[in-house]
Amino acid sequence: MNDRISDKKLIEVAQRAINRIQFRGTYLNAEPIYRLLIRRFPQDVNYRNNLTVSFLMANREDLADEVLKETLRLWPDDRIALSHYGFVLKNHHNKLEEAVVALQKALEGDTGPASEPRFYYHLGDALLLLGRFEEAHEVHKRAAALGHFLSPSQRSLYNVPRLQSRPWWPVEDTPYVKLARALEKSWREILKEGEAAKALYEKEKEGLKERGDWSQLDLFVRGREIPGRCRTAPVTCAIVKAEAAAAGCRRGQVKFSAMEPGTHVRPHVGPTNCRLRMHLGLSNTKDTFIRVDKETRQWQLGKTFIFDDSFEHEVWHNGTGTRLVLIVDVWHPQLTPHERRTLPAI
Where would I find the Aspartyl/asparaginy/proline hydroxylase domain in this sequence (predicted)? Predict the structure, then answer.
């Protein structure tokens, strides 16, 4: 590709190459192609924005940041660039006030190319982190009215809209009664397995903890067993493997969750409405609480409950000792067998 190629031909060849790169997931390989297009078409902001997206898809927010600053120097009101810049300011730099300003400008009037669910999600989340709860709620209401969220409280981004929405599910209203009773029957053995594997636990990585200490041990992720983990928890894994909707839930996990006294997990939502989340209380559940939407409950030793984590939820450990629970994600019961097989993993 060079200056002797017509503009039309250059765009055609470049797009074909970019499509192949995106299919393979090697997003950084698109950079020289986008740089060429930017030089050839310096007045077209779209190529700069597409380069930004490639960097973000490759988890290179630092490189995206450089492109965004130059883009906004040339096009200070470009809504796509503003929305991506707000995302980078929030998630990469933790500059929440600046992120809110950029995202508010990008979403002004609720119209235009930046009016996407993910940008409303990040604007609302930044406001929550800043303690500006009423403003966050207004953003969530706007997004729900636009059809970007299932409701102001149910803000997951990867959804099957027809599925029944309810924050809390009685176990008896699901097909997972057998799983719940098996876990409850063996809860003391499961507790021993969870405690014996403490050296393998990892700190929570999603930035959801406002204060305290929270760690987890994954057994299954995206419908696959973590190699070797079930040797440390054979009783737990045997029960999970007996329920295909748990062991094969490609939009969920099975994990132990350990939380120390004084921990607060801030309001947040899960990524999808395609799963339900079962908890089994294992240790030190007194004075530990979880709010899902508007209802707050407490864990009980050896007992399960089920909720939909696509609704806003938060957690407090106001008690003493390490609170341990087992988390088992299961497919939403209204998903068809075909959907369970074909929905992309999360």
Answer: 184-333
Give pLDDT tens digits for 228-245: 999 999 999 999 999 999
- β-pairing, 275-283 vs 253-259, is unpaired
* Whether domain 7-145 has CATH 3.20.20.150: no
What pLDDT, in 10s, does the model give residues 114-130? 889 999 999 999 999 99
Q: Where in the chain is the domain with CATH 1.25.40.10?
A: 7-145
What the block records as the tokens of 131 is 């303690």
**Percent helix, percent strand, percent coil in the chain, to nearest 5:** 45, 20, 35
Nearest to 156 by CA among 168, 143, 170: 143
Ranges assigned E (strand) in 222-300: 224-225, 253-259, 264-268, 275-283, 288-292, 295-298
Q: What is this structure's pTM?
A: 0.90
End-to-end CA distance of the chain: 37
Residue 138 tokens, joined: 């207004």
Query: For residues 212 and 265, what is the distance between their CA atoms, to the nearest angstrom?
Result: 9
Place of tokens 């006294």: 261
**Going by CATH, does the domain composed of 168-342 fall within 2.60.120.330?**
yes
